[in-house]
Amino acid sequence: MELKEIKLEDLHPEDFIEEKVAEIKSVVGSGLAINALSGGVDSSAGTLLGHRALGDRLKTYFIENGIMRQDEPQRIVSLFKAMGIPVEIVDAKKQFFDALKGLTDPEEKREAITQTFYKDVFGELVKESGAKYLLQGTNYTDVEETVAGVKRQHNILEQLGIDTQATYGYAVLEPLVQLRKPAVRVVAKALGLPEELYNRPPFPGPALAARVIGEVTQERVELVRKATQIVESELQSTGAFQYLAILHEDKVTGMRDWKRDYGIQIEVRCWESSDAKTGSPTRLPYETLERLAERITTEVPAVVSVTYNITKKPPSTIEVV
Ligand code: XMP
Predict the structure, then answer these.
(1) Which of 151, 159, 228 to mutate to test ligand 1, by most ligand atoms within 8 A of the CB atom?
(2) What is the pLDDT of residues 125-148, one digit of tens each?
(3) CATH code given to domain 8-198
(4) Does the reported pTM lie above 0.90?
(5) 212-308 placed in CATH 3.40.50.2300
(6) What 3-state class would DSSP assign to 113?
């Protein structure tokens, strides 16, 4: 891989910010750029960097794709509003669910999400706004995993030989691409992002679709969204790198009120990791696991089985899709 990583110990955040702001300014010139904010650390840092460079010549959107966590669009928009950055919510739920319809293969689902983002949604926004650039928060691990063939990360384009100008009608700017997550957090903090954002556990670009085994439908996303809310509220205090709920495809026999209940399975994962490259499951107290099982089976009544993943990455990966 030609791209050179800037390691955390070699990073001088203020110099890095100054350099990237100058680069963005010189590339975009007097033109316009757009970017999508998902509320993750990378896209949040990218948004602040872009606004520092371009001011209101950067138009920021939150793409409501229907696969985000509970109340996420409104929460992120109001956090950025408080920082003086207007963010417009784009309702693209139908486009995403239409594209995901009938797909069960993980890489096909990722490809459908990529195409919907870059071709349909951004392609249209670029046309409407007159922007020539899309700014995004791709990081070094995203590129590395895609190039190595582990997973097609949703945001990798040029590194896979895709000419975005010819394919989608805009050029892509990736100011954070030499940094891994811990370094992005340092830059995000230096840019003035609030701690609840720069210290947030990572969340994947394909959002909850990365946590649904099998077809991604609105109903199935709703189940994993509810379970996610419980897992996040119960495991936030662990300080783990990342914690998530996964919806399984197979149903299993359970029982409720002494009657057979053929229900669904949720898998919980909680990871210790520094950069997502490798990871190991957190040794959660048994009481915590029991509380998770109790809450998920009660608050998401279709669930009859809750399991905890005990596999390291590798051979597992952090997300399931
Ligand atoms: P995996 O599942 O590959 O995840 O072990 C490594 C880290 O990357 C996140 N992830 C993604 N982030 N686009 C992203 O921006 C993606 O397509 C994507 N897939 C996984 C994952 O949450 C973990 O932190």
Answers:
(1) 151
(2) 999 999 999 999 999 988 998 888
(3) 3.40.50.620
(4) yes
(5) no
(6) helix
